[in-house]
Design a protein that fits this description.
Radius of gyration: 18 Å
Strand content: 5-15%
CATH class: Alpha Beta
Number of strands: 10
CATH architecture: Alpha-Beta Barrel
CATH superfamily: Aldolase class I
Number of helices: 12
CATH topology: TIM Barrel
Distance between the termini: 29 Å
Number of domains: 1
Helix content: 40-55%
Length: 318
Amino acid sequence: MSIKWEGVMPAVFTWFKESKSSSLEIDFEATQKQAAGILKAQGKGGSRMSGLVGSGTLGENSYLNSNQRLSLLKSLSEVAKEYNVPLISGAAAETKEELAKIIEGLATVGVDTVMVMPPKTKAIPSDKEMFEYYALSEATAKNVGITIMPYNNPDAAGYHALSTKLLLKLANLPNVTALKISTIDVSIIETMMLANKDLKILAGVDTVTVHAGLAGAIGGITGVGCIFPKASVTMQEYVTKGEWANANKISQALNSLSYLDAQPLLMEYLKLAMGIHHNDVAGGLRTLGKKLTQQEIDDVQARYILAKERLEVLDLIS
């Protein structure tokens, strides 16, 4: 698939249902329906989401086993094909050999691009070791007919930051089609664009969509856009056209909710907000993650209501 990276892509949530033994299992049908609904949404300019991210942080990746992840992605690949967008998923491992096996598995279930996180090691790898880790993933992806997207998330605990020098070197690998930079420090994006104006960079934090666009990002991966897709797509339309004042109005309207995307419990927070939006907090949008306190629940609800009220004024509720 020839991938058009410009635009915004939703990192969709994973729905659950109770099994016969009363444990939670993936509700594939509900998850597909959610993804299709988001991909159907149009911005005011008529554009739609440009990709689909499955089994990511917001998709409870860290709580699913390998078979569950692959089954989930296989079901989402059907939706991605229906809407003619690439399917993207993440991967991380301790060694480059483990990572290569994961990439091979992802290719068998319809994933088009793998967001490759830095190695999950306690010791910080040298730039040489880090490059070799990504170089093998790039070569493996090429062998199985897909691409990779190095994923730098310096603000997330437990992940090693990729240096700007290394990111620029990785971008030159032929099977690297974009870079994902998840940070509120958008000067990283600006610095990289000054070094290579042809880079394709996607922002990974909802609070900085407009600022990342100003710095040179061509799009982003969104969590809040799953809840308010019309607003997210419209904001990106304005960013793409350089209509910064209009884009900023939407960013400000989403601000109370976008804030949650930069927090350690972003999955739990945003999934709760999605549950409030769909009146499904105790149903399919339950989580395998951490149980929130009542104070946290009340805070998410207040933030959701404020964003919804602001977006209604702008006619941006789907």
